[in-house]
């Protein structure tokens, strides 16, 4: 069984929903990076402080870490025994982002206190260009850490396979 699971992917791809479900099924401690990266009202925490906090989490023996911080992905990938990349289509992620903000309760435990979800142009561009920024990094991490199992989830069938593997 996997005890250190790194989950990353486009905003709106379902990472946090999946992470919460996995946490409840496995009882592995769950950490949402957005709750550490941001402080109240979407202000970014000092980056070195964020890295220190993240390192304390990664050094533990068991965890699920949900988050997109690409700059520090190697820190999580190196210690994980499983990395799951949520790479759903852009249009679906955009639709989910809008739905989450405007049609669902905007209260969440995966972000810092005082942060209210919003769909901004900056977030849309970040989501839309995510794959372009991450593909080379993923290839390099896979080559550097072949012991870490890597799974890409692009649709519901992929997600069902991952759930069968983990639960």
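Sequence proposed for the structure above (167 residues):
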């Amino acid at each position: 069984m996997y005890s250190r699971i790194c989950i990353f992917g486009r905003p709106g791809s379902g990472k946090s929903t999946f992470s919460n479900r996995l946490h409840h099924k496995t009882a592995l401690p769950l950490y949402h990076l957005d709750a550490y990266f941001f402080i109240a009202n979407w202000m970014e925490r000092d980056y070195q402080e964020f890295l220190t906090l993240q390192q304390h989490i990664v050094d533990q023996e068991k965890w699920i870490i949900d988050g997109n911080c690409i700059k520090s992905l190697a820190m999580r990938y190196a210690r994980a025994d499983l990395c799951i990349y949520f790479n759903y289509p852009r249009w679906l992620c955009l639709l989910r982002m809008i739905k989450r903000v405007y049609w669902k309760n905007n209260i969440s435990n995966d972000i810092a206190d005082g942060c209210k979800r919003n769909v901004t142009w900056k977030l849309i561009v970040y989501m839309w260009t995510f794959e372009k920024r991450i593909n080379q990094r993923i290839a390099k991490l896979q080559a550097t850490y072949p012991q870490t199992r890597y799974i890409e989830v692009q649709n519901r069938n992929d997600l069902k396979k991952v759930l069968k593997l983990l639960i």
